[in-house]
Amino acid sequence: MTRALGIVAAAAMILLFAALMIVVMPSIQLQASVRPPEGLKPYSESALVGRDVYVSLGCVYCHSQQPRDPSLGPDAIRGWGRAAVPADFIYDSPHLLGTMRTGPDLLNIGARQPSVDWHMTHLYNPRAVMPESIMPAYPFLFEVKEEAGPRDIVVNLPDDFAPDGGVVVARPAARDLVQYLLELDRTYPVDEIPVEEAD
Amino acid sequence: MSTAIAFLLAATFVISVGGLGLLIWALVNDQFTMGKRAAQTIFGTDEVGRVEDPATPADTRAEMQRERGEIADRGQQGLEDRAARVRADRSSRTPVTWWLASSLVWLVLGSIIGLIVSMKFHMPDWLVNDPALTFGRLRPAHLNLVAYGWASMAGVGVGIWLIPRLFKVTLQGPAYATAGAIIWNVGIFLGTAALLTGYSDGMEWLEFPWPIDITLVVGGALAAVPLILSLLKRRVQHLYVSAWYLLAALIWFPMLFVTANLPNLFSGVEQSMLNWWYAHNVLGLWMTPLGLAAAYYMIPKIVGAPIYSYSLSLVGFWALALFYSQVGLHHLIGGPVPTWAVTISIVHSVMMVIPVVAVAVNHHMTVAPHWRLLLYSPTLRFVVLGAVMYTAASLQGSMQALRSVNEITHFTHYTVAHAHLGLYGFLTYIMFGAIYFIMPRLTGREWPYPKAITAHFWLVFVGFAVYFIFLSIGGWLQGLAMQDPSRPFMESVTLTLPYLEARSVGGAIMTLGHVVFAVHAFIALSRSGPVRDDAALFRRPAAQSPAGGSA
Ligand code: HEM
Ligand code: HEM
Predict the structure, then answer these.
(1) Of A41, B327, B464, B486, whose Cβ has the fewest other Cβ atoms within 10 Å?
(2) A27 is in which domain, residue-wise?
(3) Residue A149's CB: how many other CB atoms inside 10 A?
(4) Does residue B282 have its Cβ closer than 6 Å to ligand 2?
(5) Mean pLDDT value of segment B242-246
């Protein structure tokens, strides 16, 4: 029996030790040193709702939000932004760093593509703006109306993609999602982020 | 900070290597007094040298035995040992049936969803009108179904079946484990329904909304009760290495799963570290131990030879614990996390070569002298292939954790191919083999259609080869294109299309194999197929069976 207990106890200790090393220690370091950048506002209410839509529709499975250092790849040259730093994410929960680039990095999509119109068309059907895209279409974020109301956002569509009659307008989920995308903008320079030395 | 960091780095390294050194010293000086005898605990009297594969027809089994070398009939003690084991198997029958049968349902469902996900890559306008069927919802549904529904449930089922055999007692408190299976199933069902309707916690491997996670915690805890009760009553001197893995997995999984699912513990980058600490540990310290526990039992049992080196298996165990637990941050290489912490993970990823080689030598050297048995035994084929894939996936993983390789592969389909080499090639194959071995003991009959076993094997073998080879090549090319600033990003998308289509073909063949397997298993469980051979070995212990066969 003591041997069994020894195995279990040692196994648990090893895991605790590992958690200390690769989660707790670096977290302490970050929490001691990371301060909110002046150039980064907390997400607006609409963007937070949009962020939930992003989570719920699983955009993270194809898009990272973590441009890498130039030594690791041409992320900056592709216009995805400077290397991300921990302070860029202080308002993010759940984190959406992602592990795939089936599509491009999105941490700075708001700066790279600030047009609401473009985003609406792209979400309705990506192939309407990028013929070779393999991103899924999200028609359920939109509805077809006879005629647009005064506050509706109408989606501009090439003839091939437009419905036979009526106009395509954004549902609230699409508006919030696009608001979130526009607020993805970490183009402020890193040296303006306040830092506090940990020791 | 930098001196402190250098110190920490050095400290983890020293502690890890020191721990390993201590263990080797202990083994060399025979502090464990185990060696050969411990390796023999899984055999009854007169059993070494006797092949065993209840998934083969009796005549094939006889041929297998001739291949392995003739062996004398069991003596009185041998018969008693066998009868005790039949009693042990009976005692675990209900919970094992629940866990395994459920896992098969999730396997088929998860595979079908995986296939749809795969097809959506090259058919982006297919099934887009219903948000429940959008790529980003089916993708986590696939992962959670195969990881927690299939792999975990099959692993736990095999584990529960092993317990009475490893401890030589009847399973104590089987009803707890049965209740655990039911509650776990409720969790998988609710979790998947939540994902499809848009409720996700948002982190990979932790998507199920946390209130639903509670069902998995309760279900898992209930499944652990018989392990502990049986341990207390055990009648063996030595704990066989499979028991080590099961015991450790038993403590690791709840620690990991509960910590990582606590809501609002962290945010931002800290949360990403917690996320990947969890996600790699759930592979390394949960799924891997379950797979290795099964392999360490099945390989020696089927070929009828004790494991090659028992000491080596203990080195493998502790080195795995020490090194695997620290590798999580290799999922964030190049990310906005402290570089020193990532470096710790990379170093440990490379050190993983030690336990992997230890396990590889042990598994492969046990089989090597008897490799011709692979021609007869489908169970052995699955388990040995799984063990080979474990070696392959792990060595590939160590390479892939190096910065120079990772910068190319990190964000590509190459990682997905590796993920399947691990969870499919390794774990799933071993579970297939284990289930072929176990099921006849649950039903008391042989598998009704041996041809279905052969069909299953070739379907998943060919299907997976297509899946893995094409996706690895496609992923690598994708990475090269992405890293080349002179090529537009869209090139890295379009060039993968033929490979993604090939993956769908491979995936479809695999899925077909799973359907064949599941249907066959349910026919066997419902006892409706042809009774080919109600082999003596499955009979109730009361009906004393003639010497000969195996059990
Ligand atoms: C039967 C056929 C299967 C098919 C067609 C299939 C297909 C897929 C697809 C398309 C993905 C998504 C990849 C992405 O988002 O880029 C995926 C992910 C995954 N699948 Fe499967 N799969 C199958 C079986 C399995 C099985 C049986 C397991 C495990 C036991 C498994 C484990 C995983 C894991 C862990 C991931 C996540 C990979 C990652 O995040 O890198 N799959 N699969
Ligand atoms: C020595 C052992 C191993 C090492 C060092 C290792 C290393 C790695 C690395 C570096 C990645 C991340 C790639 C990236 O995102 O760039 C990875 C992903 C993965 N590995 Fe391994 N691996 C090992 C063994 C295994 C085994 C045995 C399994 C299966 C049981 C496995 C399953 C996976 C899965 C499922 C992923 C994808 C996770 C995700 O993105 O969701 N690995 N591995």
Answers:
(1) B486
(2) 1-33
(3) 8
(4) no
(5) 94
